[in-house]
Structures are given as C-alpha cells and as structure tokens.
User: What shape does this take?
Amino acid sequence: MKRKLSTAKCTLITAFLLLLLLTAACGAPAAAPPASPPAEQPADAEPAGDSGEPDGPSALPEKLIVATNAEFPPFEFITEQGGGALGEYDGVDIMLVQALAAELGLEVEISNMDFDAIIPAIVSGKANIGIAGMTVTEERLTNVDFSVPYWVAVQSIIVPSGSDIAGVDDLQGKKVGIITGFTGDIALSAIGGIDLQHYKKGVDAVMDLNNGRIDAVVIDSPTAHKLIAGFADLSAIDDDPAFELESYAICVAKGNEEFVAKINEALQKLIDDGAIEAFAAEVDARL
Ligand code: ARG
Assistant: This one.
C-alpha cells in the first residue's frame, strides 16, 4: 500500500497539469491559477510501445465488466435519446474505458449501479474494473487497488443567487445536499455542524436547491458545472481552500499487480497523447 500511495503522489503533478488542460478544454473553472502547459513527451507517441514481456495467463480478465454510476456528467451519464459513446452510456470515463479496452484487446460491458455499490462489486468480483470519477482515498485503498490518476478535481459549493454562503465556514447549521458516499459527503461529515441532506443523484439535490428546499449542494466541480448549466439562478464556488485536490483513478480488486500494470500502461498512453482531453472536448460538445 505504501508503494501505491507514493506512486499516486508521484503522478499527482502530471495529473494536475492535465487538469489545467482539461478544465480549459471543457470550460469548467480551473481549480488553481494558470500554470505552464505540461511537457510534451513525443517519444511516447510511437504506436507499438510494448516492452514485449510475456503476460501471465490470469493477468487480464476475458472482458472488462465495468462498474459505474452513470449519474455523474461529464464522466458518466445516460443519454436520453441514445447516441452515447457506448449505447445509452456516454461520458469521459465511458470513452476512456473503451479506449483502454481497445488497447488491452478486450470487450466492454457496462454495469450501472449506485455509487456506493461499486467497490463492493469489485471486491466480490461482480465487476472487474470500476470507473466512476472515483477519488483515490486512504479508506478506499484498504479495499481496492487504484490505477495512476487521470483527472484532478475539487469540491464545489453550489448556491442560489443572493445566498449568504461564500465558503465552507458558512455551511454551519445550513441544509446542505450531498450525494451518499461521494467525497463531498465524506468531507462535510468530517466537519460536523452541517445539516446534511443525503441524495442518491446530484441532479436531485440540484433540483431541491433550485426549489429552495435546501441551502447548498456540495459535489465535484466538473459535475457541479454540468448540473447547474440549465439553472440561471445557481452558481458554484470552486475555490474554497478547505477542500483538498482529489485525484480520479480506476479501481480493481486488490492483489492483481499485473492487471494494474497493464491498465496503467494503457492509461498513461491515453494521458500522454492527449486522448482524455479530446474525450472531454467531445463529450462537452454532446452535452
Ligand atoms: N469523486 C467523488 C468520489 O469519488 C464522486 C464520484 C461520483 N461518481 C459517480 N460516477 N457517481 O466520491
């Protein structure tokens, strides 16, 4: 576990630079001041980059059974009239897992479930890979292994216009919508003194906020901006220093180091060649 944590730390800077590119690409506000663009790595652009080492027969599953919760635009959502990247499913993660599967030579099957069912599905083997804009946390690392991070986000506070809430400190005693099991839930539960209102879907929390039933919603920033897009009276506060940067990664069952290595190799390629950034732009155009 120690090794994985430090791997995650090493890649954080790359992921953070990626965020700057991605947020620029999808129009979401940057979580930090502008920085220089990431260094290009043209050497990695060669098509056949395999080191040629043989794989153990059990390194890869027969197909990728993907646990997700398709209620989290722009990462995964269900398209109303179909026409998504994979049947009714669309989003950056859906495109990412398809590209990953293509790299690994595997088929993809999406298994949509509640967010808090994803890790149990991985642990029990009902699914062999989880991708859901999932933040790497110490607690989750006790149950699953994570890939290298591919995105960095922060929590946003969504408020109605004219709200007296300007940051986390103003949430004391307020009715705040959070989504059960999300990192926003974990962060606000740790603070205490906030009247937490639990929802299963971000969209339902935002509806209640718009109807005046709650005072604020806390959810990941890229999703916050997608969810408020149709509501003229809602805005998002993205820069409260009380919230730490979060890295999204893919989770798998513990203990299959070869599978993680294969995923990381393919994922790193997609990060380095700008594919994830391109997926974000494509999804943005469809949303
Ligand atoms: N990043 C947050 C977390 O890991 C929220 C992820 C929600 N993802 C979803 N597909 N519903 O807790």
